[in-house]
UniProtKB/TrEMBL annotation:
CDD domains: FruK_PfkB_like. Residues 295-307 have a biased composition (Low complexity). This is 1-phosphofructokinase. Transmembrane segments: none annotated. Keywords: ATP-binding, Kinase, Nucleotide-binding, Transferase. Its EC number is 2.7.1.56. It is an enzyme of class 2 (transferase). GO terms for molecular function: 1-phosphofructokinase activity; ATP binding.
Amino acid sequence: MIVTVTLNPAVDHTLAIPDLPEDGEIARTDDARVDPGGKGINVSKYLVELGTETTATGITGDFLGQFVRDSLTEKGIDNDFVDIEGRTRLNTTILTADSEYKINHDGPAVNGHAIETLLETIERNDPDTVVVGGSLPPGLGPDAIDRIARAGDWQTAVDVGGDVLRDLDASYTLCKPNREELAVATDRPIDSLEDCYDAVERLQTMGYDRVVASLGADGAIMATPDGLLHAAALETTVVDTVGAGDSLLAGVLAALERGATDEEALRSGVAVAAQVVSVPGTTVPPLDDVPTRLESVPVSSPEPFSR
Ligand SMILES: Nc1ncnc2c1ncn2[C@@H]1O[C@H](COP(=O)(O)OP(=O)(O)O)[C@@H](O)[C@H]1O
Ligand SMILES: O=P(O)(O)OC[C@H]1O[C@](O)(COP(=O)(O)O)[C@@H](O)[C@@H]1O
């Protein structure tokens, strides 16, 4: 069973307008939606659609926190959050005809007491894998994630910022940086696929058994204990990439959870992400045809890096 931990959940407000308004103008639209969001929560949404048992936990507060919990329950996603006094944040994505703008709030301040309660909550749900995803709210540092990783005999995967990846000290089964996070985590520029291969191998030496790096339209690479794999992205009509990384991670973890090989897991992640980028926001598309699409994901072992 996979427990996802979102320390800083969000209500995702996604709206579409043809162009950004000029100064003093008002843009009006009837194309807007709100979804419960935050990286761990999104992973749980996709895991449920993939038929993998999961519970979403983390820290929520006030009426936006209530919205997150209620809408997960309505969607049939098991959830068990720690409630605090501060207010869960509202994150906005504005889609125009040719651009995507994201505005993310910092979120409410969280104290050590909430983390104690969160550790009890995770333990009560008896996971074999814990996924910690998203930014840290004010008041918490990377040590909060290390505490979660060390608190039980579960495996821990992380989808966190590059600065946090650099600072974590515990052992992790997997991390999922994107290009920018790879650059920050390794403190090196990432200008080519070779730079990515070098960076994921560096991250392995920093305590991550597997590194799945998402590279947008260039697909994804996975550093495994046996070598490197590159999967090209599937061709699809891209509506927006909100939740793309979360869906890639869910596809990988769902496959690993059922005992698939690393290569099958990478194929699964890329096949799931291709479906998710073709729908708006973090809407969950039907994912029942993912098993039939695995073979169409082109996977190679990059030379001369394969061991
Ligand atoms: N333009 C695209 N075409 C096809 N697949 C895409 C595209 N952009 C993203 N994806 C898929 O979504 C995955 C995650 O996207 P990415 O933007 O790298 O993640 P993140 O949301 O973490 O920044 C990619 O590895 C790829 O499989
Ligand atoms: O915690 P962060 O880094 O601010 O990100 C939170 C946001 O990212 C999302 O999880 C989407 O993630 P991606 O677009 O990176 O896949 C949103 O649901 C949420 O609003």
